[in-house]
């Protein structure tokens, strides 16, 4: 701001000087000394007028209008903020539940279909309820599965979590905490930080594959007759 003001002052002084010179030498009959004196006098008069106007505006007019303008600006910002807030509330009230979004529906169907053949009804219902609570951001304190499941290995838990996290855009650490709470038997000796790092790991034996987010997430139907163990070196 100061740079712009200094530039304006410089231009103004140059213009004043030019005008003063033109006025001082406008008379053909005046001597050189007279013309110079007239130019200097005109320059000083114009400069004094310019400074009077500038500082009059800066120290008298601006302070008078600054507060009213500030109040007007504040009211406009406040009204805009209120409108945005009201619009957000309306959108939330009329919005779709997180559980009804296509991605959430896909994840829930994938979970139920994948574990339908290997979990008891109680376990499957508990996993379904806890997954829905997790999607809604609610706490999940109940354990869904706390036993060994045939051919459902630690890396299957990782891939199950990875498939969900990628579609729901959930951070790995949050996903790891959820997996640890739902499958404590499979993840008994694994820290949450390690789970978060290994969600995308393909090393070791597993039955559940990772499914790229761009592909449909279809249930694998875990069962002894459909399970295929894959080993990577």
Strand content: under 5%
What is the H/E string? HHHHHHHEE
Mean pLDDT: 77
Largest sheet: 2 strands, antiparallel
Would you mind describing this structure in some detail?
The chain is mainly alpha-helical and 233 residues long. Helices cover 64% and strands 3% of the residues. It has seven helices and two strands. The chain has a two-stranded antiparallel sheet with strand order 1-2. The radius of gyration is 38 Å and the shape is rod-shaped. The two termini are 65 Å apart. The C terminus is likely disordered.
Secondary structure: elements and pairs:
Layout: H1 2-24, H2 32-94, H3 102-115, H4 121-135, H5 154-168, H6 172-182, H7 192-198, E1 204-206, E2 230-232
Antiparallel strand pairs: 1-2
Helix pairs in contact: 1-2, 3-4, 3-5, 5-6, 6-7
Supply database-style keywords.
233 residues; mainly alpha; two-stranded antiparallel sheet; 7 helices; 2 strands; disordered C terminus
Put the structure in a nutshell.
Helices cover about 65% and strands about 5% of the residues. It is mainly alpha-helical and about 230 residues long.
